[in-house]
Amino acid sequence: MARPSVMFALAGLTLAIAPCAAYAFWRTGAVRGVRRGLRMLAGAKPTPPKANKLPQKVVFGKIEGEARGAAGDVLMHTATAEDPYFWLRDSERKDPAMLAHLEAENDYADQMLKPLKALKDQVFGEFLAHMKETDERVPYPHGGWYYYSRTVKGLAYDIYCRKKTLDGDEVILLDVNKLAEGKKFCDVAELHPSPSHTIMAYSVDFQGYETYDIYFKNPTTGELLDDVLHDTYDSFVWGADESTIYYWTFDEAHRPYKFWRHILGTPQSEDVNLFTEDDNTFYVGSGKTQNSRFIVVESSSTAPTSEAHYIDLKGVSGAEGHKSAPLVLFQERTRGIQFDLEQWGDQWWIVTNKDKAMNSKIMTCPLGNTTFEHWKDWQPYDPKTRIKAITPFKDHIAVSGRKGGYQQMWIIKPAEDTWYQIDWPEELHSITISTNEEFDTDVVRVTYSSMTTPRQTLDFNMTTQDQKLLKEQPVPHYNRTDYASERIYATAVDGTQIPMSLVYNSKIYPDGIHKVGRLPILLYGYGSYGISLDPDFDYRRLSYLDRGVVYVMAHIRGGEDEGREWYEEQGKFLTKKNTFSDFVSCAEYLVSEGYTNTESICINGRSAGGLLIGASLNLRPDLFKCVITAVPFVDVLNTMSDPSIPLTTGEWEEWGNPNIKEYHYYMKEYSPYDNVRATRYPAMFVTAGLWDSRVAYWEPAKWVAKLRDFKTDDNPIILKVDTAAGHFSASDRYRHMRERALETAFVLDQLSSTELLVPGPPLPDLPPEPKESSRYAIVNM
Ligand SMILES: *[C@@H]1O[C@H](CO)[C@@H](O)[C@H](O)[C@H]1NC(C)=O
Ligand SMILES: *[C@@H]1O[C@H](CO)[C@@H](O)[C@H](O)[C@H]1NC(C)=O
Ligand SMILES: *[C@@H]1O[C@H](CO)[C@@H](O)[C@H](O)[C@H]1NC(C)=O
């Protein structure tokens, strides 16, 4: 199991990828008109807030009594740096001076963005026109039921349901709209039926900090059980029956580390702690093997290193049975060796990088003999094939991975020791394994999309290799033949070819986009944690494309887009700067090859992608017209030195630990906050979430304050802090879309691309603006 099997694919509204704690954790003749739009922001001149500067020394290196490094690390002697905006940091989020400053930022943002209201409303209307508001996910079979989620026009959240047969009566399991009543934020992370499908358990967070409570519901009566598990990690796993459930709690730095067994009907205080991950550089996760026989408990660091334990549920039943079912060590941690477990037949199936298999290979071992010496190659390692995860079924094993720069899938027939690769209709594509809860089947459900094909849910018959299209995400007023996507390559400073995927409206550019010279471009990047970008579909891009903007995705190093070495050897630790220079090379290529010029590129990235944006800006502030970045991780040097900040210790293996000399000085050369200088910067729109536990609000707040202090131009820099949200912005889908529409309006205005160049969709009546804006939460807290 690669990750806990998530029962319900959540609504897909959380746009981008985040520093995810472990498994859990954007011419020809037709170009006339592109520059027609008015620069609406040009007239707005309110005074930006100015943050106080207070003396504060930040200490790096050794501090007595603080765990500033992992075991064996040699810390540098104490070094100090001045951080005049340090005072903006308040872990409790209630310092009046800090809140007043954020409020001043929000007031300024409101005034600056006011002229964009009509455009924002227009874009929001386009989003709604391209979105089927009342819609339903394809029901998937699970234990005699069909489970699915659906949305209703006007309602902000999902409704989770099941039915006995595809045309049977609907049972509503959880209506998140009801759960969210009276709440400013509501995130249901997981919802799993018990093994006999008689109890539904769900984890919910009402704040955005990603601390959850787990509730239990009788799906027949709709009543809640007395059991509530407080302050838990989002994921949990049922035992062999409804008597028992397993879950995780956090340490002081919000790292899940204790694994607990809860017997239903007993108080949480009596729960038994089965495992504690004491090494603060390790993340944890748990889930069941696809055949439900084993619970696997994983610890892993991005070193990469794994350890796994398991509970064999065969023959286990009732509270007493679970109490005596032991947690057994599979294989202890060995630095540099990473693995994920599944089980098929009488063997464990292991996806691992063992024996220097950087892109991973598949190994097997007997159920009873699980240590390294018993592991055998299922087939020889192929360095050109990146194996990511396996999903076993009765007679087949589906394998997901990457080859040739794209996501791919293979099907193993274990009885014959053979496998084959599945072909997809478009070269630029995304393919992921969808929700597959049944083991005894010969079909695997997958999700396919491309930059022009909306998300398709397919059943692939592994015996006949037939594909059955169950549903394509309906996108009203969209005709894919009007759009084109392609892949191009920039040359990095070290000569490496860096792919870019792009999409544009081919009605606006009938002769293609090469040599147009001043294309408005939205360049998007991420490039960290080995997370790849894949050419996928997003109807919210249409508001850009139909105004002539070309959307470009940069497949830079730090992701594993071109294989694992793209990340491990060329995009982390002391090679991290490749990530930033690759992105700059992509933008430079677009200019030097005559696609565009430096007045026409907007760059976008969120979270660790915000670090990318911040670092690229310091490298080439003159290359970009405007910037849009959400929850940017920009205070890298300070955050990574302080183990009390969530995610820090676990990421010492990702960026390095700045309490150690070699990492300190390398990181100091790229950390965005530390490299702001007196120069011209582009127009910027920055967003933050007050309750964000992954990138604390103070990182963007300090960065913006420092940029305002240093920059030598009059370009606007706007910070908007959502005080009722965390890392993933608003949980309410309409609020989320309004925020996104505002960001889009900002970019369109900066790129002077506010006018539609092809007929837009007919606009619906807009739902009324919510009366209470989230920001007023500041004063009420
Ligand atoms: C485990 O290995 C030992 C010796 O290497 C062998 O005797 C034993 O039968 C094996 N057990 C299983 C369950 O394969
Ligand atoms: C897959 O194809 C085989 C062979 O035609 C058929 O027997 C089987 O029922 C198909 N599986 C499903 C789930 O439709
Ligand atoms: C999409 O556009 C093509 C080419 O303009 C046209 O032939 C086709 O009928 C359109 N499809 C729909 C569904 O409107």
Automatic annotation (TrEMBL):
<dbReference type="GO" id="GO:0004252">
    <property type="term" value="F:serine-type endopeptidase activity"/>
</dbReference>
<feature type="domain" description="Peptidase S9 prolyl oligopeptidase catalytic">
    <location>
        <begin position="536"/>
        <end position="752"/>
    </location>
</feature>
<protein>
    <recommendedName>
        <fullName>Prolyl endopeptidase</fullName>
        <ecNumber>3.4.21.-</ecNumber>
    </recommendedName>
</protein>
<feature type="domain" description="Peptidase S9A N-terminal">
    <location>
        <begin position="76"/>
        <end position="473"/>
    </location>
</feature>
<dbReference type="Pfam" id="PF00326">
    <property type="entry name" value="Peptidase_S9"/>
</dbReference>
<keyword id="KW-0378">Hydrolase</keyword>
<keyword id="KW-0720">Serine protease</keyword>
<keyword id="KW-0732">Signal</keyword>
<comment type="similarity">
    <text>Belongs to the peptidase S9A family.</text>
</comment>
<dbReference type="GO" id="GO:0006508">
    <property type="term" value="P:proteolysis"/>
</dbReference>
<dbReference type="InterPro" id="IPR002470">
    <property type="entry name" value="Peptidase_S9A"/>
</dbReference>
<keyword id="KW-0645">Protease</keyword>
<dbReference type="InterPro" id="IPR029058">
    <property type="entry name" value="AB_hydrolase_fold"/>
</dbReference>
<dbReference type="InterPro" id="IPR023302">
    <property type="entry name" value="Pept_S9A_N"/>
</dbReference>
<dbReference type="InterPro" id="IPR001375">
    <property type="entry name" value="Peptidase_S9_cat"/>
</dbReference>
<feature type="signal peptide">
    <location>
        <begin position="1"/>
        <end position="22"/>
    </location>
</feature>
<dbReference type="Pfam" id="PF02897">
    <property type="entry name" value="Peptidase_S9_N"/>
</dbReference>
<comment type="function">
    <text>Serine peptidase whose precise substrate specificity remains unclear. Does not cleave peptides after a arginine or lysine residue. Regulates trans-Golgi network morphology and sorting by regulating the membrane binding of the AP-1 complex. May play a role in the regulation of synaptic vesicle exocytosis.</text>
</comment>
<dbReference type="InterPro" id="IPR051543">
    <property type="entry name" value="Serine_Peptidase_S9A"/>
</dbReference>
